[in-house]
Amino acid sequence: MKLLVFKLNHLGDNVVLLPGLQALRARFPDWQLTIITTPELRALYTPLAPAERIWTEEKLRFDKCWRRPWELATWFARVRALRPDACLISFDQANIPHLLARHSGARVRVGGNLQHIRLQGTLTHEVPMPTSTSPAEWNWELCRVLARELGGADLAALPPAPDLSHLVSPTAPRSGRPRVVVHAGASRPFTRWPEENFAAVARRLAADCEVIWITRPEVVAPSPAGTRAVATRTLADFASLVANADLFLGNNSGPMHMANALGCPGVVVTGATGMGWNPYWHRERWAVLRHPRLECAPCERTNKVTLTCANLSAPFACLAYWTVDAVEAVCREVLAQPRGPHHA
Known about the structure:
CATH architecture of the largest domain: 3-Layer(aba) Sandwich
Helix content: 25-40%
Largest sheet: 6 strands, parallel
Number of domains: 2
Strand order of the largest sheet: 3-2-1-4-5-6
Radius of gyration: 21 Å
CATH superfamily of the largest domain: Glycogen Phosphorylase B
């Protein structure tokens, strides 16, 4: 059985698909998986498929390849030559994955639709968004449908945390103090709590914690005094840090979802991001800081991407609500909670 998976998106979107693909690989070890993803996320999928069946392309270039007919023709030929029996098109994919799946020759094409797909008849099995609006559950349900349709079997009702152990390696010896990883970045500017606020919390925690400040291109603030600046150049670099940390502090972002999947306790400052994107696993170890009574928040939905703040009277009030004092206090509360080993 040949399964072609389309998943070109950000880190968090891929992390929440992994449990389903891992379950399919475990349940049907003879299936041949081919995965189309972005170059920087290839490492997530190396246990699932050999290198020659993990195809990569930059998301924007792939989504816009209709503007370069020679590239689109190359993708058509590549997909047709694979002769897949089935295609999985995650709900967050654009028109090109739907087009390629439709003409792949696959008899089963399972996917979701955020109502922006202009093409008709691309899916044989369209899976609606779950009532929970959780992307983790939506992706899991796509894989459950595939398991039933192609393998005559079923998966569990809810997704387990993904296994990311292939990315984790031992880190430098611990200092004996609690280790805190601070990631002040995020892919979209309007979802970021001010980086100077993260820096202030990091400085305070550094008085009695080992604080690691993740350097990012979008974060221009220098590493705060008393912290250790680390550039995580690969997914394995980051996974190894947070798998051995006592606390992750950051925005609602892909790195946050990876930290959550790895079982690291965390504090996430959340503004516009939809409720479905709350940390899905190990919830008892996480504090999600949302404005408790702002009518416009969250303005994002799982099936509706928001690109700017619509609150003209008080822009970014959802994020401004959280002070440095409040976030520091919550971090210390989470650090004080008793817990056993937290590796996923």
